[in-house]
Design goal:
By secondary structure, the protein is an all-alpha fold. It has helices spanning about 1-30, 35-55, 60-65, 75-105, 105-125, 130-140, 145-155, 165-195, 195-215, 235-240, 245-265, 270-275, 280-310, 310-325, 335-350, 355-365, 370-400, 400-425.
Amino acid sequence: MKTFSFLFWLSSFMINLVLRNVQMRKKCSFMIHPQVKTNIKIMWFANFFVSASMTMVLPFISLYIETFGQFSDAYIQRWSGWIFAITFVTAFIVAPIWGRIGDLYGKKKVLIISASGMALCIFLLGFATSVWHLFYLRLFMGIFTGFIPLSQAFISTQTPKRMAGQVLGTLQTGSITGSLLGPLIGGALADIVGFSSTFNWTSLAIFISAILVIFTKEFQINEVKKSEKQNYTSKEVLKHILTNPVLVTVLILSMLIQVAHFSIQPILSLYVSEIHGPENLALYAGIAFSAAGVGNLMMSKTWGKLGDNYGYIKILMALLFLAGIVYFPGGFVTEMWQLIIIRFALGVTIGGIIPVRIAYIRQAAPIAMQGEVLGYNTSLRFLGNVIGPVMGGMVAGAFGFTAVFITTSLLLIASGVILLVSVMKNPKYLKNSSTS
């Protein structure tokens, strides 16, 4: 009964937050082209379905492996890690390629291909009979993973520079809401219809996202300078990135931030068990996970708006230092309520990093190459997704849970210092992060 009460409260709370974001969006939407407003609404729901679907199945991958035979716990844990990580390894390789294809032939087409490919792979996961089937399907799925970052690039090129952070923050609430509700829906479906059928329903939800994208219209804001080229070679894109030290730093930080964010993921449930004990472990672990998401959902749009007003690099730097400070005491908590408050505060700070970072890239790179630049950004993020859990598990195994929080805190603060040094050495590039 307590579990259902919590789920009902959490769902109601998030729906109210979404409605509030929609209302806030309407107040400022007069500055955006009408077609773009329609695209944002469609992509919000598409991101919601994709994010919810992806998080619906990941929590019970290890339980699904158990249905294939009698395996040891070590075997299941090892394969669960590989099956989770292999998708990001493939995505790390192909993300810049999809970004370039989007620049040349249209991001809408790539979004439809991405959603359709993911839907097919997840549908086939429901028919897997061995860990190798899961491994190869997740490997293949990595080719199509990247719908959400690509959708951000799709909307970014349609948005005025002066309000890119606010719009991207609004779009991000769709994926955050999906990631919060996904595990709850997936767990309920798995209990009711079984694992295989859950994969089938999940693939249907992602396919709906592909259909939704069909109703968008490819649109590019008219901010191209007369001297600016209409297309760039990959060599020219790399040259543009490498000649902007602050942009290079922001791209590298994309990886470091994901390493920090994912370092705690594989051990958080175990940490909750140590603090709270085994009673209602799944429920309390879910609350700890969701607390960060709720904070993220509440503040992502606000941080984006602050970036629009005061400069994206300044806000990004502040968020990195704040996140590092908030993370540190997490390793010393003794009660669940303390961990939940810290996770919520972390979500508040982390919530602005993605939209602010992408909004900066929106200003630092010409529109005609933004898909490929954001592709490199996505590629480095996926690399961080692979390194983070491995690092967190190794540090926890060698030095304990507290060490993971300390290491992650220091990594985030170090990221802020790296960005500060980069800006101080190259002050002229700070102007590119300010509103124009």
